[in-house]
Amino acid sequence: MDITEFRKRGKEMVDYVADYLETIEQRQVYPDVEPGYLRSLIPEEAPDEPEAYEDVIQDIERVIMPGVTHWHSPFFFAYFPTASSFPAMLADMLCGAIGCIGFSWAASPACTELETVMLDWLGKMLRLPKDFLAGTEGQGGGVIQGTASEATLVALLAARSRIVKQIQAHDPQRSEVEIISKLVAYSSDQFCATLGTTPSCAFDRITELGPICNAEGMWMHIDAAYAGSAFICPEFRPLLDGVEFADSFNFNPHKWLLVNFDCSTMWVKRRADIIGAFKMDPLYLKHDHQESGLVTDYRHWQIPLGRRFRSLKLWFVFRMYGLRGLQAYIRKHVGLAKEFERLVRNDERFEICADVVLGLVCFRLKGSNELNELLLRRINGARRVHLVPCQLAGAFVLRFAVCSRTTESRHAQEAWRHISELASELLRGQKR
Amino acid sequence: MDITEFRKRGKEMVDYVADYLETIEQRQVYPDVEPGYLRSLIPEEAPDEPEAYEDVIQDIERVIMPGVTHWHSPFFFAYFPTASSFPAMLADMLCGAIGCIGFSWAASPACTELETVMLDWLGKMLRLPKDFLAGTEGQGGGVIQGTASEATLVALLAARSRIVKQIQAHDPQRSEVEIISKLVAYSSDQFCATLGTTPSCAFDRITELGPICNAEGMWMHIDAAYAGSAFICPEFRPLLDGVEFADSFNFNPHKWLLVNFDCSTMWVKRRADIIGAFKMDPLYLKHDHQESGLVTDYRHWQIPLGRRFRSLKLWFVFRMYGLRGLQAYIRKHVGLAKEFERLVRNDERFEICADVVLGLVCFRLKGSNELNELLLRRINGARRVHLVPCQLAGAFVLRFAVCSRTTESRHAQEAWRHISELASELLRGQKR
Q: N6-(pyridoxal phosphate)lysine is carried by which residues (chains A, B) (predicted)?
């Protein structure tokens, strides 16, 4: 494919993407396929010779779409949202074209510098303590990780490295293995200090945990993967109080801040802590500026060596929405969750199982776990909406998470009408 | 931005991307900016209100491009290639639009199933032993990791988990910590068994290492991050001989197989080994098919929970190039490296420092390390081509890696003429 054909095919793809998202509501949100469906639809080996582009494109509807769970359908209420917006998609196209690998400042200065400044912008939007910002003279700063799991692992390794060094500074005889064998990581059953757990969007009390961690010299990492985006709204910011005690903090703009996956933003108070755990400096990655202290080499901040130019997505989204646009988006989703909560509360057959703080409603039919498992099976079997369950204190609970950028009141209302009808059918069947 | 505007802006972006790549040769390959250049070019905070799209787009040339190292310029010969092709970029647009998160089969069956089948396709292209393929009944199979570092870490953790279980099966009293404290990982100074090291593209002798690993019950992981793509050519496939002894193998199609970053493909012989190290099964991720043994839940194969629909890139590239097109691409790059090698060898002031096996030429001026450091400084200072050095047995060596998809003979020739002139200037200066 030459550049001329790419111009044509690229524009066709823009239209395909726009058509897909414009009509996604008409697609069945959860697919009908059985395991192994795809293998039989395509050849067993790659072709020897190039195929026609038209054949590839036709196979999207023939092979791929029948097996897609449509996360951006307004009837998708499962898991948590994964973000999507047009500005982020445009930025991703640019990111693919520049195609630089930003493992060091020199490998593409713009890639590193925009990331540092965007993490400062975002930190300010969240009103993070100044310690977490890079600025021009700060000791802290932010980095984009792929996922919250990676951010947590990085925090864990940085914490381990710091404490081993501290202990060895006092007692150089003690081996790393012996020290590590005695280290303890404290966590709840959702791991580390969490703001907005996945099952029920519950919040740890970090204003209580924080001072203990600080007094005991423990590394405190706070994960707000889903909830973090909401903290750009002043009314939700108190949920983040206590972050001043933390050593590291992360959340996922790729969940709820309109930045397409992957973009998990992480801040540390002392960048030396994180760099100390990961530093690697072969000659082929050295460059003139690295000893100056002026530049950031992000390969020292993460597990992978390579990294894409992901801050472009943040930049486009922040500028095309503005802080107010992003706040309005969060508030709309929270409003839809509250609306759904009211519908549930007005039906005395149901109960709400956890405070509805943000965009997640945990609910169930009053009655046995089996009854609720059956209800969920019927809901997902009907394929009109898609939900997943969680377990809360032994109870089987249904989760209604407002996910899609295009979910409106009518979708929440229709989802409730549908769920409520299925519940009626189910309860009628049980009475017989 | 609504859908109508996205159609317009998306098409403009396709043209911007095409223009950028069409004229990239005219851009200075390595930027002039100093550390901190970007912060002063943009505001200190995100805007409150949305900005005009035109302003964002204008800032690409004003803010971003002056700080970009152009990895896809045909005059970029640094590090190793990072892949880029039009079919991969089109697939990435589609990936962004579908925007599913493929942590389980149910989260988007097409995402999981295409990945498994594409890794089988690619495994067959490499003639991997059948043990590494999933097929419909295999015990092995492949997965896309983000980078080779992640693949290596996953292999290490899987190896550790397997041996701990084996030891505890014989001796249940021994604690995990005690066992781990006695474990040893063997590696060269480039780590694990490597086919195609970064400094010089050297190859470990895996036909010798493999039988020892197997006899001693050691996990053998082979990393062929850069070189792996070449093994689709029969003439380079012998370099992979011995892979039959390995437990896991990975390479990066995002380096040299025209698939944009990130796409690091990894295969294991026994998927149970890898799943055993990472399994996590909260209720909200459970689905009907997971106990059937028929489906793959890729979250058990990796550090992150979330994952994009990256196999679309492989599918588009394999079909739009065909195996022969991909082989021709590899051979073209190797041919260019050989051509550059001949130019170096014909100049008696220079020496070749390592066998030129694939697309990398390691060379230096006969003489001191200081002389070569000076030469490299002048080369990169002139900004017409970009190279990085490496250290080989104490010698400071220049690396000429054929990187861009659009590098042709004339670029290699022009690069050599330029380097050779700078060497002449330098040597004249030294004689004075």
A: 255
Question: Is the pLDDT assigned to residue A316 strictly greater than 90?
Answer: yes
B395 interfacial to chain A (CB closer than 8 Å): no
Q: Is residue B245 part of a domain?
A: yes
A299 in the same domain as A214: yes
The yes-or-no verdict on residue B41 having pLDDT over 90 is yes
- Tell me the two tokens of residue A100: 């630089």
At A26, which CATH number?
1.20.1340.10
Length of chain B: 432
Smallest Cα distance from A238 to chain B, Å: 21
Q: Which residue among A308, A343, A371 closes a domain?
A: A308
Do B20 and A109 lie within an 8 Å CB cutoff? no
Same domain membership, residue A374 and residue A300: no
**Mean pLDDT (whole number) for B76-96:** 98
Give start and end residues of each alpha helix (H) in B99-199. 109-125, 148-170, 176-181
* Same domain assignment for residues B272 and B386: no
Contact B93 A10 (CB under 8 A): yes
Q: Is there a single domain that holds both residue B297 and residue B364? A: no
Task: Say how far apart CA A245 and CA A131 lie, in whole Å.
Answer: 11
Domain limits for position B427:
327-431
The domain that contains A350 carries what CATH number? 3.90.1150.10
pLDDT attached to residue A106: 94
Residue B287 has pLDDT above 70, yes or no: yes
B182 and B53 housed in the same domain: no
Q: Which of residues 327-386 of B touch A (CB under 8 A)?
A: none
Structural domain tally of chain A? 3
Q: Which residues contact A268 (CB under 8 A, 6 or more apart)?
A: A132, A140, A141, A142, A143, A158, A247, A248, A274
Q: Is B266 helix (H, G, I), strand (E, B) or coil?
A: strand
Distance in angstroms (rounded) separating the CA atoms of residues B311 and B319: 12
Residue whose structure tokens are 């009518």: A410
Q: What's B120's domain CATH number? A: 3.40.640.10
> A25 at the B interface (CB within 8 A)?
no
Identify the pLDDT of residue A288: 80
Nearest-10 Cα torsion for B274, B280, B281, B284 = -130
Residue A318 lies in a domain: no
Count CA atoms within 13 Å of residue B161 on its CB side.
15
Cα B289 to Cα B38, B104, B109, B232, B275: the distances in Å are: 50, 10, 11, 35, 17
Q: In this predicted model, what pLDDT tens digit does every residue of A139-183 receive, in sequence order?
A: 999 999 999 999 999 999 999 999 999 999 999 999 988 898 889
- pLDDT value of residue A119: 98
Q: Is the pLDDT of residue B432 over 70?
A: no
Q: Classify residue A160 as exposed, middle or buried by CB count within 10 Å of its CB (0-12, 13-18, 19+).
A: middle
How many CA atoms within 13 Å lie on the side-chain side of A188?
16
Of A273, A308, A343, the residue that ends a domain is A308
Nearest chain B Cα distance for residue A7, angstroms: 6
Whether residues B128 and B183 fall in one domain = yes
**Burial class, A313, CB count within 10 angstroms (exposed 0-12 / middle 13-18 / buried 19+):** buried
pLDDT tens by residue, A18-61: 999 999 999 999 999 999 999 999 999 999 999 999 999 999 99
Q: What is the C-alpha to C-alpha distance for residues A346 and A86, in angstroms, rounded to an integer? A: 37
Do residue A114 and residue A60 come from a single domain? no
Distance (Å, whole) CA B238 – CA B352: 24
**What pTM value is reported for the model?**
0.97
Interface check for A87 against chain B (CB to CB < 8 A): the answer is yes
In a domain, B185, yes or no: yes
Residue B277, in any domain of the structure: yes
Same domain, residue pair A303 and A425: no
Is A424 near chain B, with CB under 8 Å? no
For residue range B200-251, list pLDDT tens digits in order: 999 999 999 999 999 999 999 999 999 999 999 999 999 999 999 999 999 9
